[in-house]
Design a protein that fits this description.
Layout lengths: L3 H6 L5 E2 L2 E2 L14 H13 L1 H11 L3 E6 L8 E4 L7 H8 L6 H7 L3 E5 L4 H12 L4 H17 L7 H15 L13 E4 L7 E3 L4
Parallel strand pairs: 3-5
Antiparallel strand pairs: 1-2, 4-5, 6-7
Length: about 210
């Protein structure tokens, strides 16, 4: 359901042929599990508690919480909205309205939840690095890159596309083994400054 009218109509159609309709891009999606699967998931969630806390600390107010998820197959992580807030598609539609209600937008654009796929190799390796040194600036840089890419893959728009592009360019330079000059001021740091949490800056990546 990607058409604009779908977002409006589905709010009125709660069921279809006895089946309750559930938006899979919102939090609260529950899948059928066996007792063994539930137990394994709880153990896995406990083992990733350190990483989820670190990611929430780094991202700050950008996300409401960071949790371990079972709904993801291919992506390392996704962003979902609150159960009663706008979906990513609805948020995009409302942003395009010329005469939109700003007060309504602030209320309905609920904070996002970052869900992690613990089976993905990127998340597994990130956990190892964070467990070894949670203060590693490379780990924090990667957290910001994961957040930005999750915004795009989950259907949201980037607040600061220029900074995202700059981060990708830095990754390309690392892949090409191009050394950065010490006085290169074009690269903003990824981490938030302690003085002002709203400003982000790019830190040097080894």
């Amino acid at each position: 359901m990607t058409e604009p009218i779908d977002e409006y109509s589905i709010q009125q159609v709660k069921e279809f042929e006895g089946k309750k309709l559930k938006c899979c891009t919102k939090e609260g999606l529950e899948l059928d599990e066996t007792e063994e699967e539930k137990k394994a998931f709880e153990e896995e969630k406990a083992s990733f508690e350190g990483l989820t806390k670190l990611m929430k600390e780094v991202l700050g107010e950008k996300v409401e919480k960071v949790i371990v998820s079972q709904r993801i197959n291919d992506s390392p992580c996704i962003l979902v909205t609150g159960e009663y807030g706008w979906s990513a598609n609805m948020e995009r539609i409302m942003k395009a309205q010329a005469l939109r209600d700003s007060n309504m937008s602030t209320y309905m654009m609920s904070k996002k939840t970052l869900e992690l796929n613990t089976k993905h190799v990127i998340v597994s390796e990130l956990k190892k690095k964070s467990d070894a040194n949670s203060a590693d600036k490379t780990v924090r840089d990667l957290i910001w890159l994961l957040f930005d890419t999750s915004l795009l893959t989950s259907g949201f728009s980037l607040d600061e596309p220029t900074e995202f592009a700059t981060r990708i360019h830095r990754m390309i330079k690392l892949g090409l083994s191009i050394d950065e000059d010490d006085d290169d001021n074009d690269m903003p740091n990824l981490e938030n400054e302690e003085v002002d949490n709203t400003d982000s800056k790019m830190e040097e990546v080894d």
